Amino acid sequence: MERVTFGVLGPVVAWDGAGGLLALKGPRHRAVLARLIVARRRVVPVARLVAELWDEPPEGAVGAVQTFVAALRRVLEPDRPPRAPARLLVTEGPGYALRAEPEAVDAWRFEAAVGVAAKLPPGQALERLDEALGSWRGPAYAEFAQEEWARGERSRLAELRLQAVERQADARLALGMADEAVPDLDAHLAEHPWREDAWRLLALALYQGGRQGDALAVLRRARATLADHLGLDPGPKLRRLEAEILAQDPRLDPPDGPETAAARVWTQATAAYHRTATGARARMESAVGLLRNLAVTGSGGLEAAREHRLAAIAAAEEFGDPDLTARVIGAYDVPAIWTRGDDPPQAERIVAAAERALAALPRAPSNDAARCRLLATIALEMRGTRSPRGPQAAREAGEIARRLDDPALLAFALNGMFMQSCTRAGLASRRDAIGAELVALAARHGLVTFEVLGHLIRLQARSALADFSGADEHAAAADLLAKRHERPLVGVFTQWYGALRLAAASGQLAQAEAAYQEAAARLEGAGMPGMEHGLLPLTRLCLRLADGASSAQEAAEVVDPDADWGPYRPWAEPFVLLRAGRHAESQAALHALPEPPADLMYEALCCLQAAAALELRDRAVLERVRARLLPAAGELAGAGSGLISLGPVDRWLAAITTALHPSASPATGDR
Questions:
Q1: Which DSSP state fits 524?
Q2: What is the pTM (predicted TM-score) of this model?
């Protein structure tokens, strides 16, 4: 099902996965939806909905609410089979709940972004706040301004927006961007003249912009406004600022630290480039270079880069020049560590464009480097698929790069080879060798992002091989490089590894569960949906099964049927049905499972199949899973992800062998 998103920062709307508006029918339908969003995934009893929708409920009001809900479900889940339970707008107990994910509602995203921005340095905070404030389309829950049930949430969001505007101005001042802060603060105060901190920021911005007289005039205006509106004198911050301006206190001078200087240089350089670089092709290639750098900056950069990359490729293809298209596609050599794609449809389009460019490029030595980059791109974008084209492209890219003896090209090709190294279980040693070559190559030639990638690959591989001291060394090395070179996304992976280590190496399950919660929060807004979706509920299930003490039936008790299981939903379904006592349906769901995708979760998903099959005594599934897991004997199941573990593969093989051949000893059965 395409993910539906909701907008309440303005009129209440819903969008389908392609960004098209959904038809929500009448005002009471929208009111039901809005009321459920206000409840934040909690159940709203039908009786309360009736009382809040009508001043004097008519006869049949309960039935009318049920009709509204049914109509909303048809719009929100159009592909849901008849009589199948709803997964988004669910019935629970005495009422209804909207089980939207945190990122699916613009108000929830806005609130999270403002919270994250408060912990970021000014440059990153400003970017996050600009994006968050841009999501407002009007007053929150605009058409329900008079409804009592919306009043508290509207007030809370309005106050949060005012704080965000002021934090945005504060970040601009910290970056030496006083002139840019003034217009927005002027407009802000025109609507909210009682905001003392906004008066302070506006006066400070004017002073830092060389307008001392205007700054003092603003402070006088603030004094008069506060007296007229509220009968108050200015607070201590405003009085102190006035004294400091009159004294021309040096502490008020614009900051000129490294970050401010960098921001100024960036602004001047981009303006100069915009004036002088008029060639469309030059701009196209420069834009891809910017996207490549943007993808590793964090704070929404990866998502933004992914969004614009396809447009750049399409624009390049319009020139009808395969060499230009190859350069634009191949220039995006952003290191990738997660073997499941973030946007499979986009990946398919990029692969198709790369294949077209490959077919059009003449086979000449002068085109070898371009061909290598196109092949490496194909290998990267086909990650997690079972097509033979991915491994074939990875091999060809590696052969060309080694022949050309180009370090940057070889690093990119090695990334493609890593992405295609999950075609079966038990390949941790191969990935470790790729990581080791990347670290050595990148360190020799100053390829920092690929050096980080090599350390993260080795962190994953050493975890799979139960070498946690080795994994610790690579986590520390990756974090050190990330801090030195401002690569915030690296911390996402090392933090998840920290939770894995608590669970797998020390057995501290309660502490690990808390660590996983913190790590999951770090993923919000990181721009990695291919990694984010479904991961947290999966960790809870794996923690219960990892030490071998819980059966599948016992582990199923922690399974939340309404959680966002993302791509892992099919492997969770047998446990959902076990929890409900529906064993026959659980077995049917187990038999319907395909072979897991060719990614870093392969062994973990095989073990989930094994757990359910052991509970259901399904010999056919156990035989299949045993054959798939055998090459990983001696490894930790799932730990190659660097995120989770289901314990030793050997223990799963022993349990399967015992179930298949009760008279054989585990030692004999495993051989």
A1: T
A2: 0.64
What was the pLDDT predicted at 1? 46
Rounded to whole angstroms, the Cα distance separating 524 from 300 reads 10
Contacts 24+ apart (CB under 8 A), 468-475: 468/501, 468/504, 468/505, 471/497, 471/501, 471/642, 472/501, 474/435
- Structure tokens that stand for 623 in this block: 């035989």
CB contact at 8 A, 481 and 508 = no
Provide the pLDDT confidence category of residue 330 given band limits of 50, 70 and 90.
Answer: confident
| Least confident stretch, 21-30, 192-201, 255-264, 603-612 | 255-264
Sequence-separated (6 or more) residues with CB below 8 Å from residue 246: 216
Helix, strand, or coil here: 196?
A: helix
pLDDT tens track for 592-613: 999 999 999 999 999 999 999 9
Phi then psi for 25, rounded to 5 degrees?
65, -135
> CA-to-CA distance for 91 and 76, rounded, in angstroms?
14
Report the C-alpha gap between 513 and 339 in whole angstroms. 24
3-class DSSP state for residue 45?
Answer: strand
Residue 187 has pLDDT above 60, yes or no: yes
Domains of the chain: 1-172 (1.10.10.10), 177-254 (1.25.40.10), 268-492 (1.25.40.10), 514-669 (no CATH)
Could you tell me which of 516, 550, 508 has the C-alpha nearest to residue 532?
Answer: 516
Amino acid (one-letter) located at 19: G
Q: What does each C-alpha distance from 669 to 124, 459, 504, 650 come to in angstroms? A: 56, 31, 25, 11
Give the residue among 591, 558, 593 at the shortest CA–CA distance from 575: 558
Give the β-pairing of 44-45 and 5-7.
Answer: unpaired
